[in-house]
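Protocol step 4 of 5: obtain the predicted structure for the target chain.
Materials: sequence only (see below). No template structures provided, no constraints applied. The aim of this step is simply to have a reference model before the mutagenesis design in step 5. Sequence pasted as it appears in the construct record:
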Amino acid sequence: MTILENYLAKEITAKEARESLGLKRSRFFLLVAKYKDSSTDFDLEYKRTISTHKISADAEEKILTELEAEKKLIDDKSLPINSYNYSAIRDDLAKQKIIVSLPTIINRAKDNNFYQKKIIKKIHDREVLTNHVGELIQHDSSIHRWSPFMDNKLYLITAIDDYSRLILYAAFVDKENVWAHIYALKTIFLQYGCPLKYYSDQHAIFRYVKDRDKNRPHNVYNKFTDDVSPQWKQVLEECGVSAVYALSPQAKGKIERPYRWLQERIVRTAAKEQITTKEKLDEVLKNLVDTYNTKWVHSTTKEIPIIRFEKAIVENKTLFKQFKTKLTNQTIDDIFCLRVERVVDSYRKISIDGLELRVPNGLPRQIVNLKISPTENGLVKVRFWQNNTFLGEILEQVENMAIVHF
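Step 4 output (structure tokens):
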């Protein structure tokens, strides 16, 4: 108070008084006015009239309810949830018009034994850096039981653009096979174009590895790693896209983070809505991908993925190339397909696991290329090519072609 008296007596300037008290200009003059009005009851200490740490009883109850639900998911070892996601709880509460901060939820978790210390994971220092959309697409799949109310497990196949972090593809499938991954390529390439590189793990669907795959059917045993191109890789090669492989789980970090974001929210939503069918899970996945792509600010890029993606397109920072067929009579079914080679016999026929097929206009004793793809009515379309010339196509029952696994 001596400082205020000195100021009022014009013995020091306002600036000197503010610096001595450590106050900003507006706060200082408010105190001066208050001191003039009630110098005997004056107190420099600022006292809050409303507590800033209290939340409503309803909010307290809802937080504990959400934490209890999280614990049940974590305790169920058949579900892919092994830690609390307090951010997801905050988002779910916000949907219920209950706005609480993340520290508030964490504090309630600690006070009520719903807290786990973070596990420090090994950081991979060979991070892939890109400067354009379409420079690198990261591809992954994983199998889990996605709902506490479903007994069967499903594969989730995802693909993400490395630069923008936009999820380009996400779909549940009952079985993981070559066609499921080729279909993912087809969807992306037709919608966005062909990227420069495609990044995946070293699963046998994506890469032939010597010794590991030596006993797999249809592989040549004396070939070295990458000497054999799996069906999936052949599609990439025909589209002019390079295959790149992750050498460790940590190397796939950029897709693993969005994948965990999806994974955890899928399970939590499925539990809340008591989902029992794949069709309902598909709806949940679609909504979550839309939220991730169009609303969520990515923690690394600090941008919403779709905005970052579209801005790159406008600035011509893209390496996507428009998908085009190259040969006369060639269609997308000749690119995104399973491939088989056979030698035409003197009767213009070939044999596939005992099934004889007549090759229209085929030259005997020469190799014919079969491009095989499923149709919407459950049949298999077989298109015949010989010396880059289209010979014709037939439809066949899928069960008659044991070599084909869709």
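Step 4 remarks: The chain has a mean pLDDT of 84. The longest strand covers residues 389-397.
Proceed to step 5.
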